[in-house]
Amino acid sequence: MLLNLVQRQMMFNLLPKTGSVAEQLICKEIMEKLKTLTDEHKEKINYKPVEGNSDLFSYDRALDEPVEFNLSESELHVLKRGVDLLDKEESVTIELVDLCKEIREM
Question: Global pTM?
Fold first, then answer.
């Protein structure tokens, strides 16, 4: 699946907040994968810390082309469950709907 940086950030909202130990360990693996940006990608999009706040970063959205993001079967299963839970709770936002649809169709 191809994801830009904004989509990677939105995907955190699709992970189930609670679940079995095994499922939450898979969530942690997904979270680590989502946080990982190659140095090449960071350089390409001018990704850099915001002055005065090392927790915030800025980048050039116009340069942020989607990159391949691979999911294992178990990771995909957990994401689909997260989407199903959001849907059941009627908590899918307009910002998340396209990403939810894409995950459901995988």
Answer: 0.82
